[in-house]
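Summary for the funding panel

The consortium committed to producing paired sequence-structure records for every protein in the target list. Below we show the first two records in order, beginning with the earlier of the two.
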Amino acid sequence: MQELVNYYDYRQFIKDFCLQQKKINSSYSYRLFSKRAGVSSSAHLPLVLAGKRNLTGNMLEKYCVPLKLKGEHKKYFYALVEFNQAKEVKDKERKLQKLEKIRTKFKKQNLPIKQTHSLYSKWFYVPIYELIQTANFVNDGKWIAKKLGKRISSIQAALAIRALLDAGHIQKDEMGKITTKNPIVYSVDETENILVRAFQLKMIEESIMHINDPIEEREFNSLTIGLCEQQKIQLKEKIKNFVEEVNSEFSVNDGEQKIFQLNLQLFSFE
């Protein structure tokens, strides 16, 4: 079983903990877990693990007993529960930042902690990743910051390059040239999904800032339309295919390039 601080799903952690205990003691069960937690209902744990009930207040404290959590581990578990049970994207993002701060303390203890530098950890990682693929890229913090409209500092840009190198998203050859390494992948992992949603939210906010840009530098369009369920499914597929086609057709270019952001949203008013 991996370290608690490598988990981003407290329910999965509890499941793995119980499985590990079962291997040690074949008579171990959810009922025994509940008994050690001082929980009278044997149905509570299965409901929690199924996502049908949340952990709050006193019950959260009780669960730490059979899990044998103390100190920073207990603090991380509390923060993990808050993260998993948060509803809004921005709230989840704040909770995730809290988790990462606690993880930093464990890193200092040289515990086996997985690298978590997602391409979506910071909103500007993706634009910088794309910028690196342009023919005119210059590995200089000031140059990168300028290309992003000075929305970040030169120090943030330099640190972003270091983070992307450490995470293996980009690489540096013997001549010091930086190139991209891994393709952008939308993960089904909850943590990654939260970061992707936070990134998308930031890009929507950015689009509002550019609505008054010169018409030759931007394209804004909208359509309000009635759709049946089958048409909605078909349109969603068309949008996905369109994005893939645009990426494939326009990603290779030897000329001088700027980084553009293409947003497509489809939602119901109901």
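The next record, for a separate protein in the list, is shown here:
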Amino acid sequence: MQGLNALLLALLAAALAASCGGGSSSPADGSPAGGNGAVPAPWVRYQGIWSPTRYSSVGPIPPATLTLRALPGQTGIASNAVARVEVQLDQAAPVVLTAPNSTDAQGRPQYRFDFGQLAEAPECSGFFPTLPIGITVVDVTGFTYTKRVAACATFGSELDFGAFSDYGPTSARFSYSATAPITAFASRTSPAGYFDMLVPKSQGTFAGTLPAADGDALRLATNPNIPLPAGTRVTTRIDGGGGTFAESTLVAPATSQNGRYVSLGCCGPRTAVGETVAIQLAVFAYSTVQPYPPEATYTYAFRITDPATGAVVGNQTGTTYGTAFFPLQIQRGHAIEMAVTPNDPRIGVDASVRLGPTGGDTASASSNEVGTPARFKVFCCTP
């Protein structure tokens, strides 16, 4: 993976929890799922190679293209014959192909869409793509799969919009509410690096869903390239089902760009087992004044529960300032809930949970509004 795909992997490695139905990725070789004589469900799987327009002072300007090709080991992009493929850029009319129009290096048929020389949105970047792309594949039986992604029209390197229609059977819900129109993106990234994205247009409220499976990283962020009007209040939230969620609240101007997103992993609830794992809850407080005022405190509360019985197996509350770490040993399958509330208008807080002292965040939330907590609930779902 290059460009945006790699950048998104770095940004989105913050996951764990959300009842995602136990979906799993397709085999790497594209072999059909199923067994015990069951007939596999129809599927669509492909590499979707996006090449942006690249402006150059030397030579012709290449067009922006999207090519759908079969995965290694597959002969086509679907289990059944394909009736048509549609690609829609932003609000433009869909471009439709009813048959392959080129071949790959192995001579297999592929679908190539040529969009000419596209203009770029000025705020587009590898960290925040603003061109929505919808890719729909319809097979001869009527089975339809639409993948939603985003890219930059002229920025960055080639991207692989790999797709697996049978990847995750459950939807993660992304939503935000703001007192002024904002731009944002919602995304899920698989452990293999494939991703789906929603890029809502500038507006005050939004709600949308993406398919998800165990191990996916989920993220909802406002665009850091576009300043928010002073005083704008934004609440961002991800719901993964099973009671799992992460919720942040930001009042602009933010004292930290970390206050502009929430992240949550995808992991369904499961029975707790005897195995214990190390986790670390962390709170980072940031301030609009320097040095950090020690009287500017926040209140924290967390608890560990057994989802099978609802019993609370551990909890702690307190008030402090600055940075705090809480290393814990808990059973795999237990639920972790945390809420951190600023008590002073000069500070904001970032709360997170991670596996071990050096692992990546498995959920995170932020707040810089007095009396409003950054909060999340996740399951401890380690292999």
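Regarding this second record: The two ends are 24 Å apart (CA to CA). The chain has two domains: 43-164, 170-379.
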